[in-house]
Amino acid sequence: MQLDWAQTLGFVAAALTTFSFIPQVVYCWKTRDTRSISLGMYACFCLGVLLWLVYGLLVQQWPVVVANAVTLLLASSILYLKLNQKP
């Protein structure tokens, strides 16, 4: 499979925006502190990412699929911690 320049650009952009979540995920899992994170924002964000993932599958845009699958995993882990945080 040969990648064209637009798809390569898509994968680079996807990698940068997706992996930007890693420091937040690591921090939240280490400290278990999600008090400063908005539940509404993360719930909406996860739903939006899920819809982008479905869209990417429907139109077979693999940079969109891969990026949103990984982003959904990372953002959902933060949402999970937020929902299970003890007061």
In a nutshell, what does this entry contain?
This protein is mainly α and 87 residues long. It is built from four helices and no strands.
Features:
single chain, 87 residues, mainly alpha, 4 helices, 0% strand, transmembrane helix, SemiSWEET transporter, PQ-loop_rpt
Describe it for me?
The protein is mostly helical and 87 residues long. Helices cover 78% and strands 0% of the residues. The protein has four helices and no strands. The model has no long low-confidence stretch (mean pLDDT 90).
Secondary-structure element sequence? Answer: HHHH
Which regions are unreliable across 5 or more consecutive residues at pLDDT < 50?
none
Main sheet makeup: none
Class by alpha and beta content: mainly alpha
Number of helices: 4
